[in-house]
Write a structure and sequence with these properties.
The protein has 16 helices and ten strands. It has 378 residues and is α/β, with parallel strands linked by helices. The longest helix is centred in the middle third of the chain and has 21 residues, at 157-177.
Amino acid sequence: MNNRKDSLKLHKDLRGKLEILSKVNLKNERNLSLAYTPGVAEPVKEIIKDHDAIYKYTIKGNSVAIITDGSAVLGLGNVGPEAALPVMEGKAAIFKEFAGIDAFPICLATQDTKEIIRTIKILSPTFGAINLEDIAAPRCFEIEEALQDIGIPVFHDDQHGTAIVVLAALQNALKVAKKDISKVKVVINGAGAAGTTIAKLLKSPKEVIICDSKGIIDKTRTNLNKYKKALSRITNPKHIKGSLQNALVGADVFIGVSKPNILTTEMIKTMNTKPIVFAMANPVPEIMPDRAKKAGAFIVATGRSDFPNQVNNALVFPGIFRGALDARILRITPAMKMSAAKALAGLVKNPTRQKILPSLTDPRIVSTIAKAIKRTSK
């Protein structure tokens, strides 16, 4: 199998992965008069009287805008809005296939925080929810924070979706390794959108250390932005200093949301017994699974679908948005995220070293997570 050749052929032959389909047969003159003029004036009048009627008469209640500025696409970096479009198309296809949601890719030709916030506010009447995607930190934090009161949920999937899946995977991995989450040491490499939110969501481990490109985040560092300063207050309780190599000594879990090939076999050998390695950089992980296993990793997971144990936000975002749209919630809360993680982990009744999460194609996932979101929203 040649992934590069086959993927390029698929995208070229299809000229993208999406199309717009009408629900109405407009070749029928009666339908045409109802769907457009003069009939379309009637739902317009109803929405004028009551803006909430838009959910009854239009696509809004089942639509999501997938919005990016192209600044943090996969593990490829700041590649711009044009190069981001194939990824946004892919997410839209997943929304439709697994959750029946009509999602639209919107790639913005700006990386100005205020301009992005204003643009999303202006676009919001059309959509039932906003999925922020592939926006670099710390801009992604500022954008999401500023949009929590626009009347529809705004959810940065790279942050929260990834954190939810990691928490679910970790629960089952620790079960297989027979380790208590309250007694383990977790090292996260990558202090961007995903790494920051994973660190905040993982409240149970005995010790969490997070590393950025300059090493271990600690209170004594003088080069931390306000988001990393906040991280320094909830991580690294022993004030360990140095590099990723120093952080990993005696660690039970490595969670990588950073760069390819940054984790070495020598580092894994310094970890605690039965080390768990989540190497989730895409498309090339922090270490390839075969090398990690040879170094002694007990459980290995990546973000890719061609290896066992795919830890990827695609496992949760369709169900989260399905539940959010169905319940008409205004925002995704921490309690909803925890509930979604527990529901996802629970779909694997007897986890093993090769299976800590359900497959992306498992038909139970979307409905299970959607129910968890709706149940927690009450």
